[in-house]
Design a protein that fits this description.
CATH topology of chain A: Four Helix Bundle (Hemerythrin (Met), subunit A)
CATH class of chain B: Mainly Alpha
Shape of chain B: globular
Oligomer: heterotrimer
Structural class of chain A: mainly alpha
Number of helices of chain A: 6
Chains: A mainly alpha (about 220), B mainly alpha (about 575), C mainly alpha (about 100)
Radius of gyration of chain B: 24 Å
Order of helices and strands of chain A: HHHHHH
Number of strands of chain A: 0
CATH architecture of chain B: Up-down Bundle
CATH topology of chain B: Cytochrome C Oxidase, Chain A
Distance between the termini of chain A: 57 Å
CATH class of chain A: Mainly Alpha
Bound molecules: protoporphyrin IX containing FE, copper (II) ion
């Protein structure tokens, strides 16, 4: 809208809000509601997981042995670290430390990339032996007819999660550009805050994926 | 902030009639519409789109009814028939009825009823419209590609093995789901954060309570639809096998996934309709709504219970006996909050001064038709009865009584109620009444026989039938023509009203009390030229209308979080 | 106001440490032979513990408006409804209901 900022001294407050307080509160609630939809979106896959695990407990114990606990654990720590750095980024924005803000964001992006690289090596080593999703599955090391289903679930859950990581990286790159331009101040850092919320959720989901997929011994 | 309230001045803002500047002429040209962030314009664009799809879906329905004129083939073969009923169902459900009331009327009136200038996230609102349009394009593509023949439910394993355009169709619905989610999030945040000063939860118009409940369902249920269709798409492209018995999967699990969304979705369709009925009945009875909190909270109760009953669509699908019994038991509970609403509406009318204007006529028709739809739903929820009636025309009649007799009639009530506010023009009351009666007759002639056929065993989704049913089928087909005529009349007089000269509507033609009537018709670009202040319940018809037109003196239309003075203080200042 | 709470470094670093420790315990526990249902229960309890730390501190729910916490809890509730009722079917497929038998 053309006159978006016309009536305000505080230029970042959109015309239909009273003040930045109302704007930040609204954006946060909006983001939380979005996270609710994310939880339920992943929830569908968790339902599939639970139903099939309850049907074939053996299958899950046998198949999970193929996944590398070490890599999974490293990735867990990497994501925890990235959650910390983005929380620090929000703090930096609140304290008006602009240089620190973009530095923390960049570290977060790097950690996210580390996560993806590790995931990439995990995937390719699986592909190499014929562990592919669905009807492309050719691996013969697991003596259970349901093995393709386990790995389909594995690929869908981690794939969807990986997609969220990539989206998160995109959002953070945007934040870095904006932060460099000096958009975010102690008075206005809503995008940083809501992106951080999103990123923590990505971490949260991994916290559940890790024991459910990797740690069934 | 309490300190500021001392010098807060509140005064009455009388409404200017026949404004020269309003949201419709605030910008010109196609671009000013397609890229607007004004919730009113977005609402109208939604309105135009859903009317378009209602028309397309309606034509398909007429074709289906004509095919059923003869027991054997009339003019299309079985395969075409399958595609036509699938398209009819999918278009009506996903493109018309789900966005209908919330996205069109809700978008337009939600901020106005809150006294806000816009929804909380105007650009997200526009994005949601665009996402809807992109989803619709996918649907159109699927039609061009040869259609889909699975029924709107896309049951596996048929949907993953039929050669038709299931993937693009479900992808379209998947995309439209995001539009629905964004609208839901936007509405919830707006209702929480942008109410006018003084508008407590207890003074929220009931239409907004119903939109609030609807939005909660949209936010909680739609993600599940997304994941369902994602799984379906991966199933047909990668063969992941979750739903395919040939690969060790379970087709009944698909039905759980699907109905976990789609049963709550029927409340996405009907709960906003309840909201319109509450507004209309109170306004045209000139009486405070009976049982405000019961109506408000029963919407939330319906939203919640609606999540517990999805398995009543799966009684004969092979789910466990334990779950059939539990689902049947839980299904009956939906009837309680619904019944509460109906009783409260009737109690509202009791001893009111009822004014039988067109919106009220539609509301009364709604009460009648929706009650039939609801009661037959309860019948279907009874386990043993369902075994006989499942997949028959009885089910078809049931859901048309609730979806068309309920939602569409309430939608018509809403359109006629708010038409003068949206367009600034008044339609021809006589023709509107005539059309409503034609629609009512047409509707019952079409769908009452289907209850009879269904209970006698006529299965749904067949293009042929045994001769015994011919009279009933033909009656139903004739009814569909009457319905068609009714809708044509509605379209004509509404269009004429737009272009006539001497029918400018006043700002509050019905003498209603809610905030949207306290501004000009059509509304100003930013809805109000002051920050409205709310003192009374929107149904307090016994209080003078001047006390509903209050606003903060000297404000430029922005909200203020200052405390509102008591009526007594206001009395001094007004 | 609550919307602008600045989380102290002590909390942030404490949360991160707690998360890493809990991860180590989770991995460690998976190497111990715990009998069948309990291995899952242990793993999930630890995961819930970690999730609580992330939500409460990193996401700032402790200091935030209660409605945001409610939103998160609602998503959990509805997930539980979905899986709970679905399991009533999938786990009892071949069990005749007592009224019928
Ligand atoms: C009083 C509340 C209601 C109850 C107890 C109820 C119950 C049922 C039951 C048991 C069925 C399954 C019939 C079968 O396939 O065997 C059904 C089908 C259906 N209902 Fe309702 N219903 C209610 C309200 C509604 C409302 C308000 C709507 C929509 C606005 C609706 C839309 C539908 C649809 C679309 C179907 C058919 C789905 C399909 O198989 O294609 N119902 N209902
Ligand atoms: Cu249902």
């Amino acid at each position: 809208m053309a006159n978006q900022n016309a009536t305000h001294g505080e230029s970042h407050v959109a015309h239909h809000f009273v003040d930045s307080e109302q704007q930040l509160d609204s954006s946060k609630l909006g983001m939380w509601l979005f996270l609710v939809t994310e939880v339920l979106f992943f929830g569908g896959l968790f339902v599939a997981y639970i139903v099939y695990r309850a049907w074939n407990p053996e299958l899950f114990y046998m198949s999970a042995k193929e996944l590398s606990t070490t890599l999974g654990a490293i990735n867990t720590v990497v994501l925890i670290g990235s959650s910390l750095t983005i929380a620090l980024a929000v703090r930096a924005a609140q304290l008006n430390q602009r240089a620190l803000l973009s530095r923390y964001l960049i570290v977060t992006i790097l950690l996210a990339c580390v996560f993806l690289v590790i995931k990439y090596f995990e995937y390719t080593s699986k592909f190499a032996v014929g562990i592919l999703p669905g009807e492309f599955y050719t691996y013969e090391g697991i003596d259970h007819p349901g093995a393709p289903i386990f790995f389909s679930i594995y690929y869908m859950m981690t794939g969807l999660h990986g997609l969220h990581v990539i989206i998160g990286i995109g959002l953070m790159v945007y934040l870095v550009v904006k932060a460099r331009a000096g958009t975010y101040t102690a008075a206005y850092y809503t995008p940083v805050e809501v992106t951080a919320l999103y990123w923590h959720l990505v971490d949260l989901i991994w916290i559940f994926l890790f024991p459910l997929l990797y740690l069934i011994e | 902030m309490a300190a500021a309230s001392k010098d807060l001045k509140i005064r009455e803002f009388p409404v200017e009639e026949n404004p020269t500047e309003h949201y419709l002429n605030a910008g010109k040209g196609l671009k000013s519409w397609l890229f607007t962030v004004d919730h009113k314009r977005i609402g109208l664009m939604y309105l135009a789109s859903i009317i378009l799809f209602f028309f397309v879906g309606g034509m398909l329905a007429l074709a289906l009814r004509i095919e059923l004129w003869e027991p054997a083939r009339t003019f299309m073969d079985a395969d075409t028939y399958n595609r036509v009923f699938t398209l009819h169902g999918a278009i009506m459900v996903f493109l018309f009825i789900i966005p209908s009331i919330p996205a069109a009327l809700g978008n337009f009136f939600l901020p106005m009823m809150l006294g806000a200038k816009d929804v909380a996230f105007p650009r997200l609102n526009l994005l949601s419209f665009w996402i809807y349009s992109i989803g619709a394009l996918f649907t159109l593509y699927s039609i061009a590609y040869g259609g889909v023949d699975t029924g709107w439910t896309f049951y596996t394993p048929y949907s993953t093995s039929t050669g038709t355009a299931v993937i693009s169709m479900t992808l379209g619905v998947f995309i439209m789901g995001f539009s629905s989610i964004l609208t839901g999030i936007n509405f919830i945040v707006t209702i929480h954060k942008m109410r006018a000063p003084g508008q407590t939860w207890g003074k929220l118009p009931l239409f907004l309570w119903s939109l609030y409940a609807t939005s909660i369902i949209q936010v909680l249920a739609t993600p599940n639809l997304a994941i369902t269709f994602l799984l379906l798409i991966l199933e047909s492209t990668l063969g992941v096998g979750i739903f395919d018995p040939a690969l060790g999967g379970d087709p009944v699990l698909y039905q759980h996934f699907f109905w976990f969304y789609s049963h709550p979705a029927v409340y996405i369709m009907i709960v906003p309709a309840f909201g319109i009925i509450s507004e209309v009945i109170s306004t045209f009875s000139k009486k405070t709504i009976f049982g405000y909190w019961l109506i408000a909270l029963s919407s939330l109760a319906i939203a919640f219970i609606g999540f517990l009953v999805w398995g009543h669509h799966m009684f004969v699908s092979g789910q466990s006996e334990l779950s059939t019994v539990i689902f049947s038991f839980l299904t009956f509970f939906v009837g309680i909050p619904t019944g509460i609403k109906i009783l409260n509406w009737i109690a509202t009318m009791y001893k009111g001064s009822i004014d039988l204007k067109t919106p009220m006529i539609y509301a009364l028709m709604f009460l009648f038709l929706f009650s039939i739809g609801g009661f037959t739903g309860i019948m279907l929820g009874a386990l043993s009865v369902n075994v006989h009636l499942h997949d028959t025309y009885y089910v078809v009649a049931h859901f048309h009584y609730v979806m068309m007799g309920g939602t569409v009639f309430a939608f018509l009530a809403g359109i006629h109620y708010w038409w003068p506010k949206m367009t600034g023009k008044m339609y021809n009351e006589l023709w509107a009444k005539i059309a409503s009666v034609i629609l009512f007759i047409g509707f019952n002639v079409t769908f009452l026989p289907q209850f009879v056929m269904g209970s006698q065993g006529m299965p749904r989704r067949y293009y042929s039938y045994i001769e015994q049913f011919q009279t009933l089928h033909q009656t139903s087909t004739v009814g569909s023509w009457i319905l068609g005529v009714g809708f044509i009349i509605v379209g004509i007089y509404l269009a004429i009203s737009l272009f006539s000269k001497n029918n400018r509507a006043s700002s509050n033609p019905w003498g209603a009390r809610a905030l949207e009537w306290m501004t000009t018709s059509p509304p100003a670009h930013h809805n109000f030229n002051h920050t409205p202040v709310v003192l009374h319940n929107p149904y307090d018809f016994h209080k003078p209308i001047s006390e509903f037109r209050l606003g903060i003196d000297g404000s430029d239309g922005h909200h203020s979080s200052e405390d509102v003075s008591t009526p007594k203080e206001v009395g001094d200042k007004v | 106001m609550s919307g602008h709470h600045i989380i102290s470094l002590k909390y942030l670093l404490g949360a991160a440490t707690a998360l890493v420790v809990l991860t180590i315990i989770t991995v460690g526990a998976s190497f111990i032979e715990i009998p069948r249902p309990f291995d899952l229960i242990v793993a999930l309890s630890l995961a819930f513990g970690k999730a609580t730390v992330v939500a409460a501190i990193f996401m700032g729910l402790i200091w935030d408006k209660k409605i945001n916490t409610m939103a998160l809890l609602f998503s959990l509730l509805f997930f539980i409804i979905m899986i709970g009722i679905t399991l009533l079917d999938t786990l009892y497929r071949d069990v005749p209901f007592w009224i019928y038998s």
